[in-house]
Design goal:
It holds the Pfam family EVE. Keywords: Nucleus. It is found in: Nucleus. Its main location: nucleus. This is EVE domain-containing protein. The protein has about 210 residues and is α+β, with helices and mostly antiparallel strands. It has one domain (about 5-185): ph1033 like fold (Roll). About 25% of the residues lie in helices and about 25% in strands. Strands 2-5-4-3-1-6 form a six-stranded mixed beta sheet. Strands 7-8 form a two-stranded antiparallel ribbon. Strand 7 and strand 8 form a beta hairpin.
Amino acid sequence: MSSYWLMKSEPEEREPGVKFSVDDFEAVKTTSWEGVRNPEACRMMKEKMRVGDRVLFYHSNCKIPGVAALAEVCREGYPDYNAWDPTHRYYDKNSTQEKPKWYMVDVKLMKRADHFVPLWVLKGIAAGEVDLGYLTEEQVKEIGEMTLLRRGRLSVQAVSERAYDTVVQMSERGGWTEQKGGKGLNTGLKRVRESGARSEGVEKRRKRTRGA
């Protein structure tokens, strides 16, 4: 039985070698999810993620954060060998080949979202400020209970099947105005404020040249 996840990546070049956007993901198709240094997030990858699990690929720590694509786990947890390399940005002297401390999985791109699903829309739905019309009360409740809206800083998060399906539906149907650098909703829907531009913690970072 599949599980469902949300995994964050930074789409903007804030630091050398950390950018990995949906465009980069489309270019390489499959990538290792190295560099996660939060114990809880790492434990999920090591112990809970299985091949075939579905993933919401999330742009984070950027002007307009949100779900940019759908992905799938294609290799289960294995040691993050970058932690053993003293020259690597993710080096950790406390992690060794004999006793690895950090783990990663491989993830493959399934599909870029037809409609980018911004954090401000998800927050607006949960707050009752946005009504897309096609979502049921149960779906709205599931959105409001997402870890993203409760413990947003965690870079790898479990997602309920219903919440995952709801976000996928939103990515297919849209219903808000998607403006670069702006925000707004189509006629008949309330406008909500963007509040996700601040840093959301340590996201998954890797060089865009990494492939399968």
